[in-house]
Amino acid sequence: MRVKKIIATLWSLFLLAAVSMSHNFVLAQGTPIRVEAIENISSQHHHLHDRVPFKTVTDLWVDDRVMIPAGTVVEAVITKLKRSGAWDQDGELEVTFSSITASDGRILAMTGTLAKRGGKPNFLIRYSLGGVFVKGKAAVIQAGEQAEVQIAADTPVHIAAKSETDSVNKEK
C-alpha cells in the first residue's frame, strides 16, 4: 500500500513538472497559411453559397509542434458568382475562407478570398451583331490552384511540453 502511495505521489510530481514546462504562445493575426483547391470550382456548375473544399499546403509550426498539418481540409464558401452569358460576358467567381480546425481541435478564425474571372472580353465580338451568339468564358478555380489566407486575430495557443504529450499518448 505504501509503495503505491509513493508511486502515485511521484507520478503526480512528474505530471506537475511536465505541465509547468508547457508554453503559452500567441498565433499572430495575419499569420499566412497556403491553401489549394481540392477540386475544380466553376461559375457554371456551382451556386452562390456552396461550400467548396480546400486543403493546407504546408504544416504550420508553433514551437516545434505542428499546429495545423499539411492536408488539413479548409472549407470555403462561394460569396460571389456570375455565370457567363451572351455577348461574350465572362463568368465571375469568388470564394471566401472563414475558419480552419487546428490539430488540437480548436477552430481558428481566418480571412482571405480567391477571385477569378472567365477571361478577357473580346471587344469586337462583344459589340458586334454576332456577339449575341458568342458566350463568354466560365470562371474556374482549377484543382491545385493556391491562395494565401491569414489568421484573423491574435489567438492564444497552449503548447504542451514534450514529456506531457508523450505521457498522455502512452496512456491511450
What's the layout of helices and strands?
Blueprint: H1 2-20, E1 23-27, E2 32-37, E3 41-42, E4 51-56, E5 60-62, E6 65-68, E7 73-82, E8 92-97, E9 99-101, E10 107-111, E11 113-117, H2 123-126, E12 140-141, E13 146-151, E14 155-159, H3 162-171
Antiparallel strand pairs: 1-14, 2-4, 2-13, 3-12, 4-7, 5-6, 7-8, 8-11, 9-10, 10-13
What are the key terms here?
14 strands; disordered C terminus; alpha+beta; 3 helices; Lipocalin; 172 residues; single chain
Sequence stretches where pLDDT stays below 50 over 5 or more residues: 163-172
What string gives the helices and strands in order? HEEEEEEEEEEEHEEEH
State the helicity in percent bands: 10-25%
Evaluate the radius of gyration.
25 Å
- From the spread of the alpha carbons, the general shape counts as elongated
- The strand order across the widest sheet is 9-10-13-2-4-7-8-11
Could you give the distance between the termini? 26 Å
Please give the CATH class of the largest domain.
Mainly Beta
User: What does the average pLDDT come to?
Assistant: 77
Major sheet summary line? 8 strands, antiparallel
* Count of separate DSSP helical elements: 3
Q: What is the number of strand segments?
A: 14
CATH topology of the largest domain: Lipocalin
| Name given to the CATH architecture of the largest domain | Beta Barrel
Number of domains: 2
Structural class: alpha+beta
Work out the strand percent. 35-45%
